[in-house]
Amino acid sequence: MSPLSPARVDDLLRGAGPGSTVYLVGAGGCGMSGLGHLLLDLGHTVAGSDLTVNEEIRQLRARGAQIQSAHQAEQLRATCPVLVAYSSAVGAGNPELVAAAERQVPIVRRATLLAALTRRQRGVCVVGMHGKTTTTALLSFALEQMQAEPSYAIGALVPQLERHARFVPPPSVPAVNQEVAPSPRPSLAALEAEQEPRARGPSPSRQGAAVVQRARIAYPAGEWTPAPYFVVETDESDGTLREFSPEHAIVLNVDAEHLDYYADLEAVCREFQAFAEQTRGRLIFCADDARLAGMFARHPGAVSYGYSPQAAYRIEPRAGSPPSPTLQPQPATRFEVWHQGQLLGEFTTRLLGEKNVSNCAAVIALLHQLGFPATAIAGAIAPFRGAARRQEDLFSDPRFRVFDDYGHHPREIEATLKALRATGCRRLLVAFQPHRFTRTQRLLKEFATCFAAVDKLWLTEVYAASEPEIPGVNGALLAQAVRAQGQPAEFSGTLTGLAAAVRAAMQSGDAVLFLGAGDITRAAHELAAQLREEMPTRQELFFAALSAALAPTTVLRRNESLAKKTTLRVGGPADCYVEPASEAELASILKLCAAHQIPFLMLGRGSNLLIRDGGIRGVVICLAHANFCRVQIAGTRLHCGAGARLKAVAVEAKRNGLANLEFLEGIPGSVGGALRMNAGAMGSWMFEVVETIRFMDYTGQARERKASEVTIEYRGCPLLGNHIALGAVLKGEPAPRASVEQRMQAFSQKRWTSQPAASSAGCIFKNPEAIPAGKLIDELGLKGTRVGGAVVSDVHGNFIVNDGNATAKDVLALIEIIKQRARAARGIDLETEVEIVGEG
Q1: Alpha-carbon torsion 754, 758, 762, 768, what sign?
Q2: What pLDDT, in 10s, does the model give residues 651-699?
Q3: Least enclosed by CB within 10 Å: which of 11, 408, 536, 709?
Q4: Which region among 168-172, 381-385, 727-731, 782-786 has the lowest average model confidence (pLDDT)?
């Protein structure tokens, strides 16, 4: 197998060009399937094989990859690949690798190919024995939230990202080899002193985008390379860590792990040191790991984080809410980060445990070093829910919680158990599948003692992971070692019946954890499915409680179609749809949502909104009841309910000879939605005519506030981001009715000649500073571009219309086409103005 370097692999792929085939042997693993996505993004043809079909393979096939369900030499010969990459789980005798060698097709390990692709952009490697998947996913998610549009390769599926690997080409410039042509100064160093935004400042996502834009301006031509960051989970298990030469790196920890490959811990440390020498920019390392601190404290570009007083970015935990006795999801963990003696900011995370707080701090430290403001970072990391099989919450109700976790090393196990104990569970039940015979043998003593926090333990047979069996080393040996420490443990030779055994032992208040890097996840999902079938779902219990609590005049329906409730006419159903008849009814709904841990979404008239085809989980609340739609005149003031149509407000003002409200006639929404979005048309804005607003917090308390006391921004009112608009008093000016009517007709005529009549959500994109979005799309020749039933309007380029049979998927695909063209042709990152919600 040819020992090609990443540089030679990169040259080979560039020379072969788009359309050339790369063959992946063992394509179904997360690492290999991630390579498949990256190659497809770069325009290559992807073929390959694996023995089983999983979700990763299904995703690749959906994108056109030719993945076969067997390893056969004929398959490889038929595709004529320019390169073959293989998983570390594939043996040298694999028939496809043999066939590739016979045909003299270059063959490389997975890591070598990934390192080759990383060279094309601003590589950020995340390394360490524990936590790197979560940290890589969090960093990628945060950069995405801040509109930095990173490339990434993550070692697990991430529910909040479209897929676990993608390659984003830089705008309008070819990819460059950052290793050969590094930036002449530290990335964004001039922006580290960035001031925090003011009270009326932009959202966290716009702050992040502004950092990237300012960096382009700050660097002279030829010095700034607008290539995206490429965040890579980098595996140290097989000696390929030194293949990578990133711009920046995060090093989480070092441990006596992978001793089937390394001679000892010192050999592992040497690998990490060699990797550090190849990192050109920031080296973010954990000061709580004594070995890392010893290795990197004096390394150029090294920046430490952690709980240690010596950390440059020091974590200070904050007191949180006490654990819930009903096992409902816990409030977010709060913590502070101090930088060089100054409070950087307060942060929150939904992830459990102090180790995950430490992982968050690593991401915070790097992003702050790259120039992103602390408030933007806080807003970007707070919504992150984690990667698949990393403390993944498979089932929760008032009685039980079931978690699935990839942990397979004693230190990982201890950290996870500590985190779950903090949720307030009555008992902690654990089923653990040992991973690899070599690891079980070398760490037997540590495994024997790491389950001390467990109330009931099941151990299974060792998952071999392609290793040959070691005589006498098995799950029964581990069970014996655990029992010798005084810890009861049941041994199950197979996974068959494991879920049933755990279920039989469960009691109300228990948390159940399935641990291991093998296929024990099947048992975890089996138990979660069984629990869902046993009893009414949380949603069903909630619906019953809601039905009993609400008056007959309140509209309440299940599985309500939402497509006809939006102006774009696309979107899936809501689990529960409700139109409260009064403020008291609305308060009751909010309190029941909080009590049952059910999410809710406020729906106005459905303009400026795109609901995905999977619909809305939880409750959709619409203030469309007649009691919320009243418009009453008192002198020159209009007292309007949140559900009142803006057209109805404008007509009522005209009828009573009140001017300055004519612009509302053309906005296809309600008063509540217009307040929340500070809607505008014809050069006027909603809050220009608002005197007072009435709103409700999520506990059901109603209040009023003068408009002058409310912070507003472009297309937004932050107060109504976490409060519900109930109504407003609008200001009119006395005027002859005929002049008001004439102005309304002029506005209407202008609107109908400049905007499409077909179903749409309004303007799709916010206007960039350089050029209006509609004009940009027109100049790019994108009018009339179609995906399914979604079409870029011929009347106005910033409108996507529904020709009658569009789906949300069609619209989202068309949005992505427009964004990619704008970025490639003009270097402009378009930001959606339409709000996108729901399940994919």
Answers
A1: negative
A2: 999 999 999 898 888 788 899 989 988 887 777 888 999 999 999 999 9
A3: 709
A4: 168-172
Give the C-alpha separation, 810 to 387, whole Å: 27
- What are the Cα distances from residue 408, in Å, to 153, 352, 437, 439? 22, 18, 12, 9
What's the CA gap between 517 and 463, in Å, rounded?
Answer: 8
CA 516 to chain centre: 24
* pTM exceeds 0.70 for this model: no
The CATH architecture assigned to 629-752 reads 2-Layer Sandwich (3.30)
The residue type of 484 is A
pLDDT tens-place string over residues 508-567: 788 999 999 888 999 999 999 988 887 666 777 788 888 888 888 899 998 899 999 999
Instruction: Report the 10 Å Cβ neighbour count for 353.
Output: 20
CATH topology for the 538-622 domain:
3.30.43
Distance CA 271, CA 199 (A): 47
Residues ≥6 apart with Cβ < 8 Å to 271: 236, 239, 241, 242, 262
**Counting Cβ atoms within 10 Å, is residue 698 exposed (0-12), middle (13-18) or buried (19+)?**
middle
Of all helices (H) and strands (E), which one includes residue 725? strand 724-731
d(CA 580, CA 591): 13
Q: Map out the domains of the chain as residue ranges.
A: 6-109, 122-381, 392-468+485-509, 538-622, 629-752, 756-837
Kindly report the number of other CB atoms within 10 A of residue 739's CB atom: 13
Among 690, 742, 747, 750, which residue's Cα sits nearest to residue 720? 690
Q: Which CATH superfamily is domain 6-109 in?
A: NAD(P)-binding Rossmann-like Domain (3.40.50.720)
Pick the CATH number of 392-468+485-509 from 3.90.190.20, 3.40.50.150, 1.20.140.10, 3.40.50.300: 3.90.190.20
